[in-house]
Amino acid sequence: MNPYEYKRRWKYLLLFFAIVIAASSLWYTDFLVKGISKSERARAEVWSQSFKKLFDTDNDEMMNYLFSIRAKLVVPVIVTNLQDSIITYAALDSTKTFIKLEKDKKYDPKYFSRELRTMKAQHEAIPIDFDGKPKYYVYYKDSNLLTQLRIFPYIQLSVIGLFLIIAYTTFSSSRRSEQNQVWVGLAKETAHQLGTPISSLMAWMELLKDKFNAERDPLILQMENDVKRLEIVADRFSKIGSTPILTRHSVYEVISDFVDYFKVRVSDKIQFNINGDQNQEALINIPLFDWVIENILKNAVNAIEGEGQITINIEENIAKEQIFVDITDTGKGIPRSKFDAIFQPGFTTRKRGWGLGLSLTKRIIENYHKGQIFVKESELGKGTTFRIIIKSSLNYVPTT
């Protein structure tokens, strides 16, 4: 299992446990809410019965006892008659039950109307019967404690979720910064280490040509090309971490020059086709852009088993001042679920692969060329198309 797949499985596992914890918290809170809600229903029913008993007794001692019970069992209630006229109420907000007038104070009809609607929406009314027929209805609503308990887990989970998001973002940013520093340091050290042997190879090549009078020997020329290629590779690594200079170039010519170098180093059973206008120019850094094309072409070659084709189409989107480079192969294709994963560091389908090529390609296009790269389309067994989007140089004004 490659590191990316391993990391993704751990993310799914942690997400699963987070969902289980959240669901358990909500379930237990709902269990408590239902229990308290039943208790409040029972209290409201006892309060309703005590309200009825007040009409049936003339005993002062019994009335005092009933009032004491009602005071302990009270929940926010409103008692109405059959016409929904308010008869009495209890445990409502005393600061809102009355409105002040010039000489007197009166019930606030808007407040009571709003509370009554809330109570009707929350619970079924409790009827108070006289002679077997309902004469009054008692409406009640949840207590403040029950209301707070209903919303508390959502607030709690939201706060925890926000904290985790901030923590994850902070740690991820710190980790990426550290990775970038390691990557830049490794790239520059690699460029430095390559510099000495490349210089020596160039000197030995000159000695070979002089000693054997082989200025035009085809093998010597190919060796020279490879040494120059090593020089370009070292130059690429030296540019990592610094801001590259983007200059105007014909995209067709840059890609064509690289393909001419690349195709003689792969099987002659793979055909290369380049389509596009040679006058379409973009702002690019040639060593880094060649690196991008090289990584995609290498993946395309590896995906092709036996004979196949690699087609590069270059077209310009004048309205958006962009140039599209579509690289299509006739290889084995990529599953749709892997379209994003292939650009992650460490993702590879080859036993000896490092999984850094496409990750580096994405970094070069997005960070250095301010463009985009993605899998435009792919079908298993038929092939894949990568799309690169870079800025054109229609309105380019060179700096002096």
Low-confidence stretches: none
How big is the Rg?
Answer: 39 Å
Give average pLDDT, whole number: 82
At CATH level 3, the topology of the largest domain is: Heat Shock Protein 90
- CATH superfamily membership of the largest domain, which one? Histidine kinase-like ATPase, C-terminal domain
Query: What is the SS-derived class?
Result: alpha+beta
Largest sheet, if any? 5 strands, mixed
Provide the spatial order of strands within the biggest beta sheet. 8-10-11-13-12
Total helices: the number is 8
Q: How many individual β-strands? A: 13
Domain count, please report it. Answer: 2
Which percent bin holds the helix content?
A: 40-55%
Measure the end-to-end span. 52 Å
CATH architecture of the largest domain: 2-Layer Sandwich
Order of helices and strands: HHEEEEHEEHHEHEEHEEHEE
Main CATH class of the largest domain: Alpha Beta
Shape: rod-shaped
Quaternary organisation of the protein chains: single chain
Which properties best describe this structure?
single chain, 400 residues, alpha+beta, Heat Shock Protein 90, 2 domains, 5-stranded mixed β-sheet, 8 helices
Explain what this protein looks like in three dimensions:
- The protein has 400 residues and is α+β, with helices and mostly antiparallel strands.
- It folds into two domains: 3-142, no CATH class; 245-391, Histidine kinase-like ATPase, C-terminal domain (Heat Shock Protein 90, 2-Layer Sandwich), CATH 3.30.565.
- 54% of the residues lie in helices and 20% in strands.
- It has helices spanning 3-56, 60-73, 109-122, 144-212, 218-239, 251-263, 286-303, 357-368; strands at residues 77-81, 86-90, 98-100, 105-107, 126-130, 133-140, 247-250, 270-275, 281-284, 308-317, 322-329, 372-379, 383-391.
- A hairpin with a 4-residue loop joins β3 and β4 (105-107).
